Amino acid sequence: MPEPLARSLRVTGFSLGVAFFVILAAFPFYWMAITAFKQNSDLYDITNIPFWFNEPPTLEHIRYLFKETLFARWLSNSLIIGVCVTAITLVTAVPAGYSLARMTSRKGEALGIAIFLTYLVPPTLLFLPLSRIVTELGLQNSMWSLVLVYPTFTIPFCSWLLMGFFKALPIEIEEAAIVDGCSVFCAFIKMAVPLSLPAILTVVIFTFTLTLQEFVYALTFISSSDQKPITLGVSTDLIRGDVFFWGEIMAGALIAAVPVAIAYNLFLDRFIAGITGGAVK
Amino acid sequence: MAAVLTRDIVKTFDEINAVNGISLRVPDGEFMVLLGPSGCGKTTLLRIICGLEQQTSGDLLIGGNIVNDIPPRARGIAMMFQSYGLYPHYTVRNNIAFPLRTQRMPSQDIQKKVGWAAQLLGIGHLLDRRPRQLSGGERQRVALARALVREPTALLLDEPLSNLDAKLRTSARQEIKNFQQRVGLTTIYVTHDQVEAMGMGDRIAVIDHGRVRQVGTPIEIYQDPADLFVATFVGAPPMNIVTCNGGGYLGFRPENFLPRDMIGDDGVTEFSFRVDRSEYLGSERIVYGVMDGFDSKQPITAKLPPAHVAEGSVRPGEWHRFAVKNSELRRFEASGNRSTRH
């Protein structure tokens, strides 16, 4: 086979492969986006081609979400829960990860793994004892129960992630600061924290996304509509009996997904550095 | 500035003695080099002096005061790390200013001090750069400026030249030494490189397995090694050591082991030497071989001046009459310690 032909075949093959995976990954989002703007008559007419608009697009579903449901409330609930859980996780996991990386000998390694293992316990097992705690604290049917519960799985994972990152920071920088007049805590605040910003950013994005998409605990602990986060609200209040409000469900999912997608794209490089930073020397 | 004194310092890690009872006196203004192979405990001792490690037992005195329980920040000691430990997120200016900021010095004074230190080390033009934009030599100077800016009681240097290439190392060695003499700062310098130790130290402490084997001026260390370890660790090639008939060892430096006719007649010991291999190194010719009637673990080496010894006169396989002046012979007991000198 002549060389130029072989090369163009290779390029074409590669492009086709990439195209396949792009379509595979992007299709659900595309489906979500067009469904959110389709008129119901378009949506439910099975003779229509489902992949494109057969009638003019509409904002009716979005209007319905904001006017006829508590969607705005769910959004703000999710936001409040996300911000609180992220703050709690940062305040706890950053010092925890640092201590595990720096202040223990070999026991620290085992402790780090043990902490990570707690992340692997499935929530379906944990919500029974946790519901007892939530009731004892009088937080049943309140979104604050989620602020209490979510850190149980964000803190272990984030401590572990940060431990790996702190271990990769050269210790001389902190030691130099200590000799130059810092206490251990001051060296941590002035050196370790600013230098691990990529990892801390990763923790922020990770925690926020995790709380945004959590479903099981929310379903267990919350029943009033005005306390629901967005995942729960959309899937419980927009499915009534066997009636699915497809247009509204998709519009709700789209609105929740767009800010996260933008955040990911802005911080993608740093995010990857945060995830791989601790693993690779 | 102050004298540093360690009194029987022991440091144990997981039941291994990294430092095994070191007593060392570094007078005010002295340049003391801790020399030893890697893993001998010299860096651990340095870290104990600056307070990054706590000794298991023993006392540390700085300027006459016991500082065992005083945290590093209050000891007033500066340390320069092997990798420099510059703060990557600060500019050079802020790196140098950092030790002053932690002392809450007024910012006007900080400006003045930073300017002084930068000028002293010739890095005034680098003040607004960040460490990653600097070359190895520039980083070293910034680290030195940061160490000096608050006028420490003593300066500790942990293998500061090991990250530089060979050429730069020579000039950096000179710079550090000049600088130390100018400020008269008590300095403790850790290295495994004997050239650095010999070239820079007022005195050298040779350390092995957590113990001081000998403390002395470079000349004392080289001419009168206290034991076999010091004799073979210092010098390149190291001192020749051969076993004596009556037990114990006999040592002599390669440069003192010369063809018989190059040495005068007074007080000379002759040996029969078979040449196995010879290396021409420009300023010297190193000859390897064995000696008739003596056992040695290493090949015997002779360092000959090429100007006086022609290529053809020491061919491999030939036996030659070599000799050492009696005054250059060193005797060691079977235990490895130096025999009493006569």
TrEMBL record, chain B:
Highest taxon in the source lineage: Bacteria
What SUPFAM superfamilies does the annotation carry?
Answer: MOP-like, P-loop containing nucleoside triphosphate hydrolases
Main enzyme class:
hydrolase
| InterPro entries the record matches | AAA+_ATPase (IPR003593), ABC_transporter-like_ATP-bd (IPR003439), ABC_transporter-like_CS (IPR017871), ABC_transpr_MalK-like (IPR015855), ABC_transpr_MalK/UgpC-like (IPR047641), Mo/tungstate-bd_C_term_dom (IPR008995), P-loop_NTPase (IPR027417)
Principal place of residence: membrane
Molecular function (GO) terms for this protein are: ABC-type transporter activity; ATP binding; ATP hydrolysis activity
Cell compartments where the protein resides = Cell inner membrane
Q: Name one GO biological process term.
A: carbohydrate transport
Which keywords annotate this record? ATP-binding, Cell membrane, Hydrolase, Membrane, Nucleotide-binding, Translocase, Transport
Q: Does the keyword Hydrolase apply?
A: yes
Presence of the UniProt keyword ATP-binding in the record = yes
Q: What is its EC number?
A: 3.6.3.20
Which Gene Ontology cellular component terms are annotated? ATP-binding cassette (ABC) transporter complex, substrate-binding subunit-containing
Pfam families (UniProt xref):
ABC_tran
Q: Residue ranges of the ABC transporter domain? A: 4-234
Question: What is the membrane topology noted in the UniProt record heading this document?
Answer: Peripheral membrane protein
What task does this protein carry out? Involved in beta-(1-->2)glucan export. Transmembrane domains (TMD) form a pore in the inner membrane and the ATP-binding domain (NBD) is responsible for energy generation.
Q: Which family does it belong to?
A: Belongs to the ABC transporter superfamily.
Query: What's the protein called, per UniProt?
Result: ABC transporter ATP-binding protein
> What organism is this sequence from?
Bradyrhizobium vignae
- Taxonomic path: Bacteria, Pseudomonadati, Pseudomonadota, Alphaproteobacteria, Hyphomicrobiales
